[in-house]
From TrEMBL:
<dbReference type="InterPro" id="IPR020057">
    <property type="entry name" value="Ribosomal_bL25_b-dom"/>
</dbReference>
<keyword id="KW-0699">rRNA-binding</keyword>
<comment type="function">
    <text>This is one of the proteins that binds to the 5S RNA in the ribosome where it forms part of the central protuberance.</text>
</comment>
<dbReference type="InterPro" id="IPR011035">
    <property type="entry name" value="Ribosomal_bL25/Gln-tRNA_synth"/>
</dbReference>
<protein>
    <recommendedName>
        <fullName>Large ribosomal subunit protein bL25</fullName>
    </recommendedName>
</protein>
<comment type="similarity">
    <text>Belongs to the bacterial ribosomal protein bL25 family. CTC subfamily.</text>
</comment>
<feature type="domain" description="Large ribosomal subunit protein bL25 beta">
    <location>
        <begin position="97"/>
        <end position="169"/>
    </location>
</feature>
<dbReference type="InterPro" id="IPR020056">
    <property type="entry name" value="Rbsml_bL25/Gln-tRNA_synth_N"/>
</dbReference>
<dbReference type="Pfam" id="PF01386">
    <property type="entry name" value="Ribosomal_L25p"/>
</dbReference>
<dbReference type="GO" id="GO:0006412">
    <property type="term" value="P:translation"/>
</dbReference>
<keyword id="KW-0689">Ribosomal protein</keyword>
<dbReference type="GO" id="GO:0022625">
    <property type="term" value="C:cytosolic large ribosomal subunit"/>
</dbReference>
<dbReference type="GO" id="GO:0008097">
    <property type="term" value="F:5S rRNA binding"/>
</dbReference>
<dbReference type="InterPro" id="IPR029751">
    <property type="entry name" value="Ribosomal_L25_dom"/>
</dbReference>
<keyword id="KW-0687">Ribonucleoprotein</keyword>
<dbReference type="InterPro" id="IPR037121">
    <property type="entry name" value="Ribosomal_bL25_C"/>
</dbReference>
<dbReference type="Pfam" id="PF14693">
    <property type="entry name" value="Ribosomal_TL5_C"/>
</dbReference>
Length: 206
């Protein structure tokens, strides 16, 4: 597993909005942390972390001379600007069992359309419990060669046997017929002009 190290800096607890340019506020908690600790991170580092490793990235956090292992528990974005607002990192022992919501990326959907099929997604993530070091950052599923009626269940993710879920029988997506919306062509006369239907008696003109 790639070792990703990010540095956390002390952030005094203050009322009001965090306005320090170039940094994003966050908290550390969990294994080896006595109480939830307010920190700040370099905003560019966090953006790259989320972009390359996803919202469940496993990281080593360097803080006040010590280095602890953990994972990104929650990321908050502004719903309009998508500006990064806050990040929570939970510290864990490397052999600690945790429960995590792992995102699923379905690939190859365009290939199905050639056969007039489409993949209907029911759920974009799976809840998994197990060893932190075995947790994938995301699950990649290729649906390009699936046939009509084929479904995706937990067994298709091919995760380590020690990783378990309560949703073994849950269907995460299924292949259906491609739905094509038909657009009615307006009626035209012999000269190609659109025919306007006369309003019926009693109908209000718009």
């Amino acid at each position: 597993m790639e070792e990703i190290i990010i540095e956390a800096l002390e952030r005094p607890k203050k009322s009001g909005k965090f306005k320090e340019q170039g940094f994003v506020p966050g908290v550390l908690y969990g294994e080896g942390i006595e109480a939830t600790t307010s920190v700040k991170f370099d905003a560019l580092v966090i953006k790259k972390l989320i972009s390359h490793h996803g919202s469940n990235a496993k990281v080593w956090v360097q803080y006040k001379g010590s280095k602890k292992f953990g994972f990104v528990k929650e990321v908050q974005f502004d719903p309009l600007s998508r500006r990064l607002l806050h990040i929570d990192i939970q510290m864990v022992a490397k052999d600690q069992k945790i429960q995590l919501h792992v995102p699923i990326h379905f690939n190859g959907e365009d290939a199905l359309k050639i056969n007039q099929l489409e993949f209907q997604i029911y759920k974009h993530e799976v809840t998994v419990t197990g060893d932190m070091t075995l947790m994938p950052e995301a699950i990649e599923v290729d649906v390009s060669e699936m046939a009509l009626g084929d479904q995706i269940t937990y067994a298709d993710f091919k995760l380590d046997e020690s990783l378990v879920t309560d949703d073994l029988e849950l269907v995460y997506g299924v292949v259906n017929h491609l739905k094509v919306l038909e657009v009615e062509e307006p009626e035209t006369d012999v000269d190609g002009a659109e025919v306007v239907q006369p309003a019926l008696v009693g109908e209000e003109e718009e």
